[in-house]
Design goal:
Chain lengths: ~290, ~400
């Protein structure tokens, strides 16, 4: 049972990690928690669902469509809801409020247009592989592999490419790189597009594994917690935070009680923040100020 | 000159206004429609049930108005969205009672929602008929005191849990049962408890009982624990979304036990949500769509429903007929008298049964059978009616 719990924990954690990456990326540059990220995941999931069912394309192709769709939505979100604030040099708190507004607006837009019905992707990779007395879903394995590949690709992009270098520099000091001649607008377009791609991917996995519905974005609260545990703003932190949270949750569910699970995860969060205020891999707070 | 003309015209206007005002006032009092409130989940997780219920009730009101209304007055339906959330319900019911001044309320379809509405409707003396709230404490307090203004048309969880346990033991030959329920839902908690009690009483064993929090999507951790207890039946007294997800994940983990659910499974979208994972599962239902009268009703009205017809629509239709009958017998729209008349409802033919009787001691329906359904080839198949012993 321990092995099964561990497998389940890692599988859940993988999806948390995928979502947490998008949070951390935006936070590292704009210094605010993009609460609209969950809605972008939700919309990405809907894009994938409709590409799948209306156009009849296979799930992998629909995944690409979902990623592209979510990237466009994330960029639009930045241009419409954050750019005007940025030009007025608003403090991060206003960005966060704007993000919440965008989230509630888009969620309700889906309610009135698509409706509150639960939707499911066509059955895809339903099989599971038995390892001893434990089972792991084929989809979970694929999701883990794809997540790992995507996160590795992003790390390479950030470390090896010129754009990536600019993004890393922006995370240190955005004003300065603006002065040095980097086009901040196009840089942020790239950042939000990447966050969107990850959101689309996470959206499809969530949609296949669970369901597609307007409030599904709220599961990203957990991803946010994962990002904070790992140290918000840090990519490796987001991944490790996600997997760690997944494992802690599964262990608590099995060995303590499912009903108590969130009590433990949030206690874990609070204790960790008391001991390490910037999370496991976060930048130190002095640097931020 | 001009002033005098103005004066006279004002006086004449006032007089005219007085006369017409009086006469139209008198007439309007007699012909004002009877307002019936519908407190229902039009949005949110339970909207599949709520929307269908609202359409069903609208059809009932149309039918009654076609026959001349109640006490010669037309019926007007006022809807208020509960979102199946107790806090939202308080606002919705307050609006119906305080602003809309409804004569009676139908709906409050979830047990938690009905319980949240009870203090308001009791204080305002507005008789309320719940469609599907099945918790025993919806119509009475924990020390057995009756809520004078709360009634229902469905059977209660004690009965449902008991009948489910007996069916599982006798018909499905289950001996080792596991339960997974939603700790945030009154309905789920009670159903789990009554199933457990009845199953142990009849001679079975409960090998695992796991809870999860409302809104959960991943049940693999508790299901893993259930798997190691090796049950031959897994009882899931939860809503259709959770049941479908749990079924998928249970099959993923290699759990082969028969799955069984409560009446919340009766929403047709469970079939698309759960897919092949639900094949061969059973659930308890409050009505059966196989019965000729109901089948015919569904065929006639299918066009008015945007989606599938769920049992809430039938029960709301029943509730409206029962309410109309009680108001006719009371001869007034006074809440106290309607409640008294509702208590006396006996052998009334409604849509889902020929003889609907309310037990005046509990405000629950008397002798409603449970209908067992099975999911076969991704369809609901009626198995049998089964009454608890």
């Amino acid at each position: 049972m321990f092995i099964q719990t561990l497998i389940t924990g890692v599988a859940i954690g993988g999806i948390y990690a995928l979502m947490a990456v998008g949070y951390s990326l935006v936070f590292s540059i704009l210094n605010f928690s993009n609460f609209a990220h969950g809605v972008v995941i939700m919309l990405g999931s809907y894009v994938g669902y409709y590409t799948c069912t209306l156009l009849g394309v296979p799930v992998p192709v629909a995944t690409l469509a979902a990623m592209a769709g979510a990237a466009v939505i994330a960029v639009l979100n930045e241009k419409l809801a954050y750019k005007p604030l940025r030009l007025r040099r608003a403090v991060p708190l206003y960005f966060m409020i704007s993000a919440m507004g965008a989230a509630i607006f888009l969620e309700n837009l889906v309610y009135v247009t698509v409706g509150a019905h639960f939707l499911t992707y066509p059955e895809f990779m339903q099989d599971s592989i038995a390892i001893g007395s434990s089972n792991i879903g084929l989809l979970d394995l694929v999701a883990l592999a794809v997540s790992a590949t995507a996160i590795t690709a992003l790390t390479l992009f950030l470390n090896k490419s010129k754009q990536g270098m600019a993004i890393r520099a922006a995370a240190k000091d955005m004003t300065m790189i603006g002065v040095l001649g980097v086009n901040i607008n196009s840089l942020l377009t790239v950042v939000f597009a990447i966050a969107g791609l990850f959101a689309g991917l996470a959206g499809v996995f969530l949609g296949i594994k669970y369901l597609v519905y307007p409030t599904m974005g709220w599961i990203t609260n957990k991803a946010y917690v994962a990002a904070v545990i790992g140290g918000i703003g840090s990519l490796p932190g987001a991944v490790i935070g996600g997997v760690l949270l997944g494992i802690v949750e599964s262990m608590v569910s099995v060995y303590v009680s499912t009903a108590f699970r969130d009590v433990f995860s949030f206690t874990f969060l609070i204790v960790l923040l008391l001991l390490r205020p910037s999370g496991l891999f976060g930048k130190s707070l002095d640097e931020k100020v | 000159m001009k002033k005098a003309w103005l004066c006279w015209s004002v006086v004449i206007c006032l007089l005219l206004g007085l006369i017409t005002g009086c006469s139209s006032g008198d007439k309007a009092a007699g012909k004002q429609p009877i307002k019936i409130g519908h407190a229902v989940a039009l949005t949110g997780d339970a909207s599949v049930f709520g929307q269908s219920e609202h359409t069903g009730l609208k059809i009932a009101v149309e039918d009654i108005n076609k026959k001349g209304g109640i006490l010669g007055r037309k019926v007007e339906l006022v809807a208020a969205d509960t979102r199946a959330d107790p806090a939202e319900t308080v606002n919705a019911v307050r609006r119906l009672v305080d602003q809309e001044k409804v004569v009676a309320i139908i709906g409050v379809s979830q047990s938690g929602v009905a319980m949240a509405a009870t203090p308001i409707i009791t204080a305002a003396k507005v008789p309320t008929i719940s469609t599907t709230a099945s918790n025993p404490y919806v119509t009475e307090t924990k020390d057995g005191k009756l809520h004078k203004y709360m009634f229902r048309v469905c059977f209660i969880d004690t009965y449902q849990g008991t009948v489910g346990a007996q069916f599982a033991y006798e018909r499905l030959k289950a001996r080792r049962a596991a339960i997974m329920y939603d700790v945030g839902s009154d309905y789920s908690q009670w159903l789990a408890r009554y199933f457990e009690e009845a199953f142990i009483k009849i001679g079975g064993t409960i090998v695992a009982k796991e809870a999860y929090r409302t809104g959960e999507l991943d049940f693999r951790a508790p299901l893993g624990k259930i798997k190691s207890a090796e049950p031959d039946l897994l009882f899931l007294p939860v809503n259709q979304k959770d049941a479908a997800l749990a079924a998928k994940q249970a099959r993923d983990l290699g759990i082969t036990a028969i799955l069984m659910g409560g009446d919340n499974w009766a929403s047709p979208d469970i079939l698309s949500l759960g897919g092949s994972a639900l094949e061969g599962s059973y659930f308890i239902n409050l009505t059966s769509f196989e019965e000729p009268a109901i089948k015919e009703w569904c065929q006639t009205h299918q066009g008015k429903f945007g989606g599938p017809i769920v049992r809430n629509a039938l029960l709301a239709y029943d509730a409206m007929l029962i309410l109309a009958n009680a108001i006719e017998r009371a001869g007034t729209t006074d809440g106290e008298k309607i409640a008294a008349a509702l208590e006396q409802t006996k052998d009334l033919p409604v849509l889902t049964t020929d003889k609907f009787t309310i037990d005046p001691k509990t405000h629950n329906p008397l002798n409603r059978p449970a209908y067992f359904n099975k999911i076969e080839n991704n369809q609901f198949v009626f198995v049998e009616t089964f009454a608890a012993k």
